[in-house]
Hints:
Elements: H1 2-31, E1 34-35, E2 37-39, E3 41-42, E4 48-56, E5 59-63, E6 68-73, E7 80-81, E8 86-90, H2 93-128, H3 134-166, E9 169-171, E10 176-181, E11 188-189, E12 194-200, E13 204-211, E14 219-222, E15 228-234, E16 244-252, E17 263-268, E18 278-281, E19 293-298, E20 301-312, E21 316-321, E22 328-330, E23 341-342, E24 344-345
Parallel strand pairs: 1-24
Antiparallel strand pairs: 2-22, 3-18, 4-13, 4-17, 5-12, 6-8, 6-11, 7-10, 8-9, 10-12, 13-16, 14-15, 14-17, 15-16, 18-21, 19-20, 20-21, 20-23
Amino acid sequence: xxxxxxxxxxxxxxxxxxxxxxxxxxxxxxxxxxxxxxxxxxxxxxxxxxxxxxxxxxxxxxxxxxxxxxxxxxxxxxxxxxxxxxxxxxxxxxxxxxxxxxxxxxxxxxxxxxxxxxxxxxxxxxxxxxxxxxxxxxxxxxxxxxxxxxxxxxxxxxxxxxxxxxxxxxxxxxxxxxxxxxxxxxxxxxxxxxxxxxxxxxxxxxxxxxxxxxxxxxxxxxxxxxxxxxxxxxxxxxxxxxxxxxxxxxxxxxxxxxxxxxxxxxxxxxxxxxxxxxxxxxxxxxxxxxxxxxxxxxxxxxxxxxxxxxxxxxxxxxxxxxxxxxxxxxxxxxxxxxxxxxxxxxxx
Length: 348
């Protein structure tokens, strides 16, 4: 009897413990937070909307051809300038000294050439009178040629020094707008360092950046203004930092001039199959240093699924991943979720 009582006590304890665990599980499920879900829909793969920047067809970095200290700046960013207009000036004193030194070298070379020519004339007279040898005459001829060559070199250095003095003034090579000005009075700049960027007048283009998975299409259109786009050039490689393709498009059919630097919405046809990508609200995307993810509910638990972002606009994103149209994903609060977290789907 004692053994039978002990067995019945063990069975009763196990039943009570099992009921306790079931009550706890039921309590956890009942306290799980509600989440709102959204159904994934096929993306409009033939329409990719990006932001494009209005740029000039020719953008010229401006720099001095000689180094020196900037003494004055006569133009500001955003200012329209004419061809030949002076934009910056360098301190000309060192350059002027270079011109004076080159002029002195020319004078010395001219004197040396005059002396060599006089020596050659005397050597010829003496040679005709048989007082010097042919070898001595040859030396005088070579000396005169050397003096003439040195004079040519000195004159070339003088012309170079005068050019350098003229380079102390940086002038606009064409009419346009200064989109950027970095040079300041008192700044010492080496030759070739850009101090401004000139956007030349004339043709305007749209610059857009495409995800590395999408090659820039050959055409597109403006959404914020009338006009069509035609591809002019594409960068030779994907940018190593942003992982994007840079593309430039010519604008055709624009009814009004486009303001430099304006950001416009542009639409392109990607030519991809519509069943290869899905549309999802931006609020459903989660990226916390582990790549973009969407969260689905599996057996009452939130589980992350990695996806690839193809494009985004102000409200929706085109993604590709292990989903099919109609699958439901968590639409809000994804930054608070953890893998395996118990959740309850809010009734639709």
